[in-house]
Amino acid sequence: MLDVTYEAVDDLPPGRLATIDEDRGRIRVKVDAAAALADVVHQLNVEIRHLLTHSDWFQLWGDEIVSRNTPDAPLGVEYSLHRLVPDTAILLEDKGCVRVCIDPDLSTTQFAAVMNPVTENILAGGHWFQMYGGEIVDNSPEPVTRV
To answer: Are 3 and 29 in contact (CB under 8 A)?
Structure first.
């Protein structure tokens, strides 16, 4: 099962506005609750590029598997401030790219809160998967282990 969560925190290392940590089937995005949203968005773009360069995430687009190495559409995520729908964020998915359009009037804490259901919704579509330790992790329910 894939899980991506956002959290506004007040305990990031000095000078860090955002961090992204990855584990099997999971990404945790922490943002500095006290920082200006525009500064956090800039840092998130740096952090997500680093993550996608050093990990193995894939998108199923039609009958094609898209990765960071896809020549015509390398996998990427772009955060930007746009007032498309007030008080929220919208994920626009295309081949190889997810654009995260964020209402600039949100606080950083509000941004983190609205991203969780929006991200859960896009993962529920079943078009994303992770290769972790040689295992393909997708949005299928985890098997129940009986003891």
So the answer is: no
133 vs 14, 20, 50, 55, 136, CA distance in Å? Answer: 31, 18, 19, 10, 8
- Tell me how many degrees the CA angle 88-129-140 measures, rounded to the nearest 5: 90
Helix (H) or strand (E) holding 112: helix 108-124
What is the mean pLDDT for each group of 10 consecutive residues in the chain (147 residues)?
Answer: 96 95 97 97 97 95 95 95 87 94 96 96 92 91 65
Q: What distances in angstroms separate CA 58 from CA 26, 70, 145, one per listed residue?
A: 14, 10, 27
Predicted model pTM:
0.91
Contact 99, 80 (CB under 8 A): yes
Which residues neighbour 50 within 8 Å (Cβ) at sequence distance 6 or greater? Answer: 20
The C-alpha angle with vertex 55 and arms to 50 and 58, in degrees rounded to 5, equals 110
101-133 burial: b if 16+ Cβ within 10 Å, else e: bbbeebebbbbbbbbeebbeebbeeebbbbebe
Q: What confidence score (pLDDT) does residue 105 get? A: 95
Question: Residue 19: its pLDDT value, please?
Answer: 97
